[in-house]
Batch of 3 targets.
Target 1
Amino acid sequence: MKKITSIIAFLLPALYMAASPLLPADTTFHYNNRKVVISENDNELNISVYHRNEQGDTVQNHKIYEGIFTEERSIERRYENSFEISIPDIFKPKKDRRASRAHWAGFGVGFANLPEGFDSDGELASVLNLNRSLQYNLNLIESSWRMGNSNFTGIVGAGIQFNAIHLQSNKAIEVEDYRTVITTTIPGDEYRKSRLHYTYLTFPFLIETNWNIGRGSHFFINAGVVGKVKTASSSKIWWNDENGKKQKTKLPGELNIRPVTLDLLAQGGVNDFGFFISYTPFDLFRDNKGPKANQATLGLQLYF
């Protein structure tokens, strides 16, 4: 950064001339292995600094600094490379942490429902305990890159999604004749708790944009798709035996949950806190192997 500052200071007289009508609106300077591009458009002065890497007869340019200056505001950015890979700041020393402008890595929790579509409740949704049906997101890896000179950022990464879907106390998810079905207990013999659990590895592709809102804060929105690969699933019931002792049983059988699927995801918020809404356009269970259900989740997310 000191080298960049020295270059700009060295070129201040030239910058002043470039802003005047005596020179063209776009001007390029070369200094050692740096290239400085100055452009002016609609009272906005843009200064970009590139590192020039000589390789035979070709020259590769990597942007390392950009400044946008107007009468009302100034924006400065540093680039270590044209592609940036980051890990959650909680794993970095405090002195190395920075404010993130990409939002995937973090922890979130939301209320999950299993309707059959946007407009009607499915067979499984009607027997859920919605107050206890939750989705947990633990997103650990995040990579991002700026899309050209636009205000849009592409985001990819990886994470884990845990789903704990609770049913009414007289219902359970079981497997009969290789098909997943909803069963009902006899009156007076209800379960203490009945839960369907499934876990995915998640791989997002999101596009994000954000705006400064003053006092060092920014508002962001992003949207895209999240590919999901199932890693585990189970159906369990909790009940009391004849002596009143609490028991737990894992119901046997392959639950026929779709092994590969995807979510449509939208997120928004301020700085490191926001909300998310997701919807799975494919059935939770394989075709003709279980009840009709598409997952929809609304929740809050804390970004690392």
Target 2
Amino acid sequence: MDIVERLSDLRSHSGEILCVLAEREDDELTVEATRTLGLHLPPPDPRGYRHPSAHVKDGQVGLVLMVLTEDREQSPLHLYANDRGLVALGTADARRVVAEALSEPPGDTLTAVVEVVMAVARRCEEALDQIEDDSQELQAAATGYTSSPQRRTMGRLRAELFRIGETQAAQRNLLSLDEELAQTVGREHQRLIARAATAFGANHSMTTRLYAMLGDVLNEQDSVVSERLTLVATIFLPLTLVTGFFGMNFQWMVDGLGTLPAFLVLGLLFPAAMTVATLLLVRRLTRSA
């Protein structure tokens, strides 16, 4: 199987089986390749592809996988294959995965499809390893009170992990031995299909674990924020009480509290003593609880 990425190479190709790498369905290279190989491509979805899918019809295999890139983007990879060749459509990162998977050309197109599926699973695993390192760094930095930008970063990363986990689970389900794709490739390739499904399942488990870990960190941060707000409210509670009481301007208060010693005792020492007593009471109650 020869890998072709240019129209001139396709037109000069004389072999029987080839793999064509292109960017879009409407590329001139794609149109020429599908006509040469006898493939029938479905019309492109104007909304874009967000979910993996697979279909087998009239001896043609159609497969849409999501490749997880290093920048945490999920790039769709379209594979269309029959016994004459394979057409792979996607971004540069997605096409690179196909080229690396087929660096040692297999003897038939079904083997090539299975090898590409395995390569996508490995690429997703490598990207998730980097995400795990980033998550561990965020967890280590979240000691005590973290800043709002850090908490927002953890929130965005959790949202990305949720989407990635759903995609990995969908790709695992596509490769189930009961699905049409596994039944089409035959018994000799089902072992590799099962390995790829296991890899996607492990990726899904990793995303679930990281999602839960970041959720625990955010919950701890919410507890820290609540404790600090409670502490501030506790400090100002006796001060507010004293201020409200001495601001009532009773006549006996106006006549008897006009001296400096009275101001120092009742205006400064008494509120300070009430604040300390309140904090000690709260601390004791917290420990007993």
Target 3
Amino acid sequence: MPNKPIPPRAEIQALVGHEFPGGKYTVQHWENFLLTECTGADPLPDGQVHPAAMFHVPILGANTTIGEMFALGQAESDASIGIESYDWELFSPLFEEVAYDVTASITEADRCEEESGRVYDRIQFVFNLADPDGKLVARSTVTWHYNRSRN
């Protein structure tokens, strides 16, 4: 099966500023319990949410999906995505049963070409979570490489 054509650099760069619909996300007690249990950790006190929730809560709360994020960067396939980083900033603990407002956008997008001939697009997504009073409580910065065919 032939590779998809590499999208023009300008199309990738034009993703900067793309905003996701945003929305609210409430971590239910059962969700936190199962997530904590599968990590092998003890429950955190006072209904605090396990930090591993930062993998999925920001994306779901922003009303997007991993599939949409793949599509925006015109991924050649699921296997063509490389993870550069997931950076979680927790300014205060997240708690169960609190409706967090989630906003998200693409803050960086550019083509990278290495001397080895490797070509990839580096796209950064930033998700912000605010409590019901509007206070920023967490941020997730996700940076992926959309690997393209070699030159």
